[in-house]
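Dear all,

This email documents one entry for the complex benchmark we are building for the journal club exercise. For each entry we list the sequence lines for every component of the assembly. Then comes the predicted three-dimensional structure of the complex as a token string, followed by one or two observations. Please use this as the template for your own entries, and keep the labels exactly as they appear.
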Amino acid sequence: MIPAYNEEERLEIMLEEALEFLDAEYGRSPKAITNTTKREKKGAGKKGGYEIILVNDGSKDKTVQVALEFSRKNKLHDIMRICTLEENRGKGGAVTHGFRHVRGEYAVFADADGASRFRDLKKLVEGCRKVVDGPKRGIAVGSRAHLVGSEAVVKVCLPFPFPLLEPNHRKSYLLTLWIALSNPQRSNALFPRPPPYPYSPSHLPYPRHPMWIQTLLSGISPPYNPLHAR
Amino acid sequence: MHAEGWIFDVEMLMLAESAPPGAISADEDGDDDAAIGCSPGIRIAEVPIGWKEVGGSKLNVMWDSLGMAWGLALLRASWMMGVYRRR
């Protein structure tokens, strides 16, 4: 189940990735099981198959047309269902609505932007099987927590150097920032002058000192300068 | 489920956690033949998945963060007020 709001550009890429995996892994129609295990004897005796439910959350662009076109191209007539909300409800609303249309054994929702690797759905289903209980309830959550600190996340955070700094540098960075923000009126253009306020930490220059700018840029506290010490 | 915004996943996990207990069988295939205990709610597996940054996100970091904080507070309040009822 895919909630989509104004996704005409990203949807097709995501659907292609999804379809490739789903066709290979589950196939388009349920198949009779040949090697029956204990569990499947009790069930309907068929396994596999999938359907795609697109919840169009009141999109104002061609999301539906893109999806229909994709469906025609890939002969998804009985597999893809599109349901359109007249007004934009928000992601939560779209997901809640979409789950009411799910008919399969497993319900999965995926973002339309294709940021998550779709073939990891297999891992999700395995994870879900492990936690499922008597009344066949279970949830598997795709997590990106393991990516914290990896290149993908650091790249996104790069404009703000804070996460990259060592703890000591982090402290001085924050302190510098705090002084800069809390004392704007004390800034003085004539810089080789001791700081006018009594609570300046001795290892930091006063605002507008060139050293201060260097500190912000590099995130490293400047060397001790006895001239600035009180 | 009541949340319309970004906070719906937290709500979903909250509802799963507070669900009535279910029997857990010893073999991990989910049928109810040999119950070895009860789960506190619906059990949740956290599975690491691959992820790449895709441009064109509709998430506004500042306003949607505020919205999420508000949604979280609202969720808490409605939970305490008893908005959620089990059928």
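Observations: Confidence is low (pLDDT under 50) at residues 36-44, 156-160, 184-196 of chain A. The two ends of chain A are 66 Å apart (CA to CA).
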